[in-house]
Amino acid sequence: MDENHSGSCLCGAVRFRTRGPLRGVVYCHCSQCRKQTGHFVAATSSKDADIDIEGADALTWYGASEVAKRGFCRSCGSVLFWKHNELDTISIMAGSFDRPSGLSAESHIFVGDKGDYYAIDDGLPQFEKSTPSIKVAGE
Ligand SMILES: [Zn+2]
Ligand SMILES: [Zn+2]
Fold first, then answer.
1. Per the database record, which ranges form the CENP-V/GFA domain (predicted)?
2. Which of 3, 8, 57, 119 has the highest local Cβ count within 10 Å?
3. pLDDT-based confidence at 63, cuts 50/70/90?
C-alpha cells in the first residue's frame, strides 16, 4: 500500500513529503536533543531517497558532533531533521508532520541523559543509550 506523509516547519519555509511507511517514533533524551529542543526529541526516520524537501535555502544544518548534523529552519527556528553523516537515512521530527501523521511511538533512547524534571511512564521500552534494535528507516 502506498503511504505518503507531509510536514513543515512552523513558518512554512521548509516543507517535506515522505513516501512509504515510516519507522515508529523514537524519543531521544540525550543532552544534545534536550539542549536543541528545550525538552526531548520525538523522531521517525526515512531513507534519503524517500523524502523530498522544499525550501533548502531556509534549511540550516548544525554539525553538533563529528558524526551527525541537525537541520532547522533559519526563519522560525523549528527543529526538523537529524542526519548521520554516513547513512542514507534521515530522522524527521514527529511533531513537524501534518496530521494524520500515521505515526506511533516505539521506544526511548539515551534515558541515562534525560532531564531530571519529568518521568517516563508510558510503558515503552527504554534504553540507557542507543540500541541496534532500532531500525533507522521504515521497512
Ligand atoms: Zn520555518
Ligand atoms: Zn538525542
1. 5-128
2. 8
3. very high
Q: Give me the architecture of the 4-113 domain, per CATH.
A: Beta Complex (2.170)
pLDDT digits (tens, 9 = 90+) for 108-119: 999 999 999 999
Domain boundaries, the chain: 4-113
Residue 19 C-alpha to ligand 1 middle, in angstroms? 22
Quote the cell numbers at residue 9: 516547519
Task: Determine the 3-state secondary structure of 50 from DSSP.
Answer: helix
Query: Cα of 32 to ligand 2 centre, how many Å?
Result: 6
CB 67 within 8 A of CB 32: no
Whose atoms come closest to the Cα of 113: which ligand? 2
Please answer whether residues 98 and 8 qualify as being in contact, where contact means their C-beta atoms are separated by less than 8 angstroms. yes
Å from CA of 33 to ligand 2 middle: 4
Model confidence pLDDT, tens digit, residues 79-106:
999 999 999 999 999 999 999 999 999 9
CA distance 79 to 135: 21
